[in-house]
Amino acid sequence: MKPNSADAVVSLKMSAHCDSDELAEAMMQWSSFTRAINLWFHSAHTLSKGASFSGDHELLYHEIYTTAQDDVDAVLEKSVGLTQDEATACPMPVTRRALEVMEQYPSPSDASCLSIACSGLAMLKNYVAGLENLYKMLDDEGLLTLGLDDLIMDHANRYEGFVYKLQQRVKVEMRK
Ligand SMILES: [Fe+2]
User: Domains in the chain and their CATH numbers?
Assistant: First the structure.
């Protein structure tokens, strides 16, 4: 699959029918994608470079990777709480799946500052789109608890904010 595609492997899309196993699967996809953002943007933070180094390193990527780190915690705890399936918080499959997500995008290593911003933007756009799919699926299936509703909304709001910041970051580079 092409990098930057909206059809990332982990897209948080679920089948029409959803039982408790599918809820567990959806929650694992969500936590894995969030972990991927955490890991990828941590490296973007470390590998920031060029004239935009200070802003990218200290503010933009630092904020995103530390936010995602806290968000993984919240999603994993919600997952165990709702499914009572501790396998959904096992670090091995979550990390493996996070790698699968990251492999859909260029590495921030040996990349220009603009390439890093573009790849990160694509990842976060797909994440927000995935949250919308997740929300609709859970709502359709009657699985959307008030707390889960709030958590998804909270993520969508914050990551839309990150998309805005990265869009502006890319614009600056492309339009002088
Ligand atoms: Fe650092």
Answer: 18-175 (1.20.1260.10)
CA of 43 to the centre of ligand 1 (A): 9
- Ligand 1 centre to CA of 55 (Å) is 13
What is the model's pTM?
0.88
- C-alpha of residue 141 to centroid of ligand 1, in Å: 42
Tell me how far the alpha carbon of residue 27 lies from the centroid of ligand 1, in angstroms: 29
Torsion (CA) 15, 101, 104, 66 in degrees, nearest 10: 130
The confidence score (pLDDT) of residue 12 equals: 59
Question: Tell me: the pLDDT tens digits for 113-154?
Answer: 999 999 999 999 999 999 999 999 999 988 899 999 999 999
58 alpha carbon – ligand 1 mean position (Å): 8
Task: Quote the CA–CA distance of 104 and 13 in Å, as a whole number.
Answer: 16
Contact criterion met (CB below 8 Å) for 160 and 128: yes
